[in-house]
Amino acid sequence: MIEDLVPDGLWAQVAPLLPAPPPRPRLHHGRHRADDRAALAGIVFVLRHGVGWAQVPQAVLGVSGVTCWRRLREWTEAGVWPALHEALLAQMRREGLLDLDEMSIDGSHVRALKGGNHVGPSPVDRARPGSKHHLIVDANGTPLQVSVTGGNRHDVTQLLPLVDALPAIRGVVGRPRRKPRRLYADRGYDYDLYRRRLRARGITPKIARRGVAHGSGLGKKRWVVERSFAWLHQFKRLRTRYERQADLHLGLLHLACAIICWRKLPG
């Protein structure tokens, strides 16, 4: 089961990024540290099936849900998930699987059952506590960067932070790519101030106008980001936010993005 949850190819990408475990006291007689791959398998199990940490199959994986949660916290604090995502993006660019000239951006609401930071009253869910996933993808829908805010934050407030947080994607000779030539967005991002700021960054904004009849044709480009949200929310743990700590929820989002990228790579 561990190999099904964390195949050899994915583990080969993750293992070099994991921090060294803390040294054991010389006369320590307690349990040995749980296997890292088994712990990652437990994390992926929770991410994929949307169950609680107590439902991690310890008898099968050989690691408890509490240990998996602790390892998630440890690796999130060490920045493992963004590093994994960035490494896989570089590999995809090397394989010619990225189209970075055009990107699309959007946001999606999720309910936050346990509160925590980056939670706010959702305007699309009767003001229930919620969070928002903000996502930017390439022309093929490959997730490039993601963030989490309170459910009451307007999409446009995360436009520039998300663009500026795009990773420097390597993989080919020359400078790494950090920004698109054109950025597509829906009417929620229709502010001339942000159009000017995008142009100042060398990016041509392709943003639908409010009050203008549908039929601009921009939807033919923007639909890929909606499909990417569907890919992300196939990981059932991301459909509803259970983590009180936003950084752990964001860590799971980055891990899901990385798995999506890994699945796109050839055998």
Summarize this structure briefly.
The chain is α/β, with parallel strands linked by helices and 267 residues long.
Give structural notes.
The protein is an alpha/beta fold. Helix content is 39%, strand content 15%. A hairpin with a 7-residue loop joins strand 2 and strand 3. The longest helix is centred in the C-terminal third of the chain and has 19 residues. The protein is globular and about 70 Å long. The model has no long low-confidence stretch (mean pLDDT 92).
Which key terms come to mind for this protein?
267 residues, alpha/beta, seven-stranded mixed sheet, 10 helices, 7 strands
Write the layout of secondary structure elements.
Blueprint: H1 2-5, H2 8-14, H3 36-49, H4 58-61, H5 65-77, H6 80-94, E1 102-112, E2 120-121, E3 129-138, E4 143-150, H7 159-164, E5 182-185, H8 192-200, E6 204-207, H9 219-232, E7 240-241, H10 246-264
Parallel strand pairs: 1-5, 1-7, 5-6
Antiparallel strand pairs: 1-3, 2-3, 3-4
Helix pairs in contact: 3-5, 5-10, 6-10
- Unreliable segments of 5+ consecutive residues: none
Oligomer: single chain
Q: How would you spell out the order of helices and strands?
A: HHHHHHEEEEHEHEHEH
Give the proportion of residues in helices. Answer: 25-40%
The radius of gyration over CA amounts to 20 Å
The separation of the N and C termini measures 20 Å
Number of helices: 10
Helix-and-strand structural type = alpha/beta
Number of strands: 7
Mean pLDDT: 92
Largest sheet, in brief, is: 7 strands, mixed
What percentage of amino acids are in beta strands? 15-25%
The general outline is: globular
